[in-house]
Specification:
The chain is of the alpha/beta class. The chain has a single domain, classed as Rossmann fold (3-Layer(aba) Sandwich), CATH 3.40.50.150. Helix content is about 25%, strand content about 30%. The protein has a six-stranded mixed sheet, with helices on both faces. Strands 3-4-5-10 form a four-stranded antiparallel sheet, with no helix packed on it. Helix 2 packs across helix 3. The model is unreliable at about 1-20 (pLDDT under 50).
Length: about 230
């Protein structure tokens, strides 16, 4: 399949898209994938089996532009609205943890406000982010929290394998990312329109992830939070 894309300099190039019949879902490896939607010069591919939606690589922004966008985020410990937003997952995952547990904020961005919140809850925290805290940890943790990160992942399955490699047996994993719904997705959904957002999930997607990686789902609100046990 070929698509013509018009650029600002009025030049036109041919870009070969995914040959859908010869590709598989990046998560469940099903061949039942199809073009689901197109908007803002991006295509979105849907897996009919696990309901994962992904943006093909041809439409990803550069790493330089991606980092620049993250540097523009205004997330700080004195932002009460942001703290309230993050507290949703803090309150939820804390029910499955002991005081003094060791955790990691995975994909924390330039400022780990989440770590500050957990430290106030008597937890020990470490940070990891491929752009801002790029040294991958060489130890294991009792829990891992990844908030507003999974929608940015180019290869979710690989990242989940990385995550599991640094979590103790019976450790807890908390993920927060807005679950997509068809009516919202095809409308003017701000989450979809963010150019750094290239992966979208439903609860069905996370059920498949649990099955593939032998995880137990401890909790979900079926909106944006899911808690796993290794």
């Amino acid at each position: 399949m070929l698509i013509l894309i018009e650029f600002k300099n009025n030049s036109t190039i041919k870009m070969e898209l995914i040959m859908f019949l010869h590709k598989k879902c990046p998560i469940c490896r099903s061949s039942s994938i199809e073009e689901f939607f197109e908007a803002e010069k991006r295509k979105y591919i849907l897996c009919e089996n696990c309901e994962f939606i992904f943006v093909p690589k041809q439409f990803w922004i550069s790493k330089t532009e991606e980092k620049l966008r993250y540097e523009q985020h205004k997330n700080h410990s004195n932002d009460l609205g942001y703290i309230s937003f993050l507290s949703q997952i803090v309150v939820t995952i804390k029910k499955f943890l002991k005081d003094g547990s060791y955790g990691i904020d995975y994909g924390c961005g330039p400022n780990s406000v989440l770590s500050d919140i957990f430290k106030k809850e008597k937890m020990h925290m470490t940070q990891y982010d491929p752009f801002f805290y790029p040294k991958f940890p060489n130890k294991k943790f009792d829990f891992l929290v990844s908030t507003e990160t999974f929608e940015h992942l180019q290869n979710p399955s690989m990242e989940i394998k990385n995550i599991l490699s640094i979590i103790h047996s019976k450790g807890v994993i908390g993920i927060m990312t807005a679950f997509w719904e068809k009516d919202i997705f095809i409308k003017d959904w701000h989450y979809r329109k963010d150019k750094t957002h290239i992966s979208f999930y439903t609860f069905r997607t996370f059920e498949c992830i649990a099955d593939i990686f032998k995880l137990k789902i401890l909790y979900t609100d079926k909106k944006r939070i899911v808690i796993f046990k290794k």
